Every structure is written in C-alpha cells, then in structure tokens.
Amino acid sequence: MQERFTAGFLEDFQSHIAGAGDGLDGPELVRVAVRGLAETLSTRARLLRVFILISTQNDAVLAIGSKAAQEVGMAFRALVRQAERAIKRPDPEAAIDFVYRVVYAACEHRVIHLAEDMESDRPLSWAALVDELSLAAQLYLFAQPLG
Questions:
Q1: What is the reported pTM?
Q2: Domains and CATH numbers, the chain
Q3: Which of 76, 100, 128, 131 has the fewest beta carbons under 10 Å from its own?
Q4: 120: left (phi over 0), alpha (psi -120 to 50) or beta
Q5: Which residues contact 60 (CB under 8 A, 6 or more apart)?
Q6: What is d(CA 60, CA 101) in angstroms, rounded to the nearest whole number?
Q7: pLDDT on residue 47
C-alpha cells in the first residue's frame, strides 16, 4: 500500500514545480520549490502521517518513505541549483541540501501533528508556514552572511 502511495510522490512534486525554471531568479525558484514541497506533503497529509509514524518502528516502511523523500529531494535540489551562482554560502550544494532538509522537516512536523498551534500559542496556517519557510530559505541562501 505504501509503495502505491509513494509512487506518485515525485510526480506530484514535479507537477507543482512544472515550468519553474523559465526565467525565474534565485529567490523565486526557492519560493516555487518550497511551495511545491509543502503542497506535495500537505495534500497527502492524512495517510502520510500514518506512514511516518509507523516508520519509527518499522524499517521496511522507513526505507520506502526515505526513498520517496530522497527522490523529491533530488528534484528540489535540481530546481534550486539553477540559481547556484547567486548563492552566498561557501558550499552552495550543501546549503541547498540544508534548505531541503529544513523545509522537509518543518512540513513533516506539520503533517505529523496536523495542528497550526502544536508548538506555539500563535497559530500558523500552511500558507503562512510556506511563506515563512520560503523567506528563511531565501535569506539563508542569497543574503550576505553577517560577521
């Protein structure tokens, strides 16, 4: 069942980012990548939550989920890599990978808890979460580091 569920995971992400490389600058590419990842995860949230929680106790379920996450990660990084020259971090590839991990983790956390106010008394909608994650990723990748 999980293999059928994850089979379309990469396709879903790719449909969310289709045509994104055409003439977009670095920050906009990041926004599209973050939004595409968040939408892919949020549209599958109910059943994805079950697989994530089972994967903490079942290595086979973890392996299937990890493979799907890594495939989406490769596509995410390929999209953002188009703006590699504008990235201000010393190792752009590692920075892009870090952004993917942070965005994935934040979205996965939301999927697990299905709540806008689990970790704070200030609710944060999916849309607001995506906007803030996009901004954080843009600043991390493209702003000149302090000090």
A1: 0.93
A2: 2-142 (1.10.357)
A3: 128
A4: beta
A5: none
A6: 21
A7: 92
| Degrees to nearest 5, angle at CA 23 with 20 and 28 | 60
CB atoms within 10 A of CB 132: 13
* Dihedral over alpha carbons 64, 66, 67, 73 (to 10 degrees): 150
- Cα separation, 5 vs 51, in Å, equals 10
- Find, among 74, 83, 110, 114, the residue nearest to 20 by Cα: 83
Read off the tokens for 32.
């599209």
Give the Cα separation of 9 and 73 in Å (integer).
11
Nearest-angstrom CA–CA distance, 108 and 19 = 25
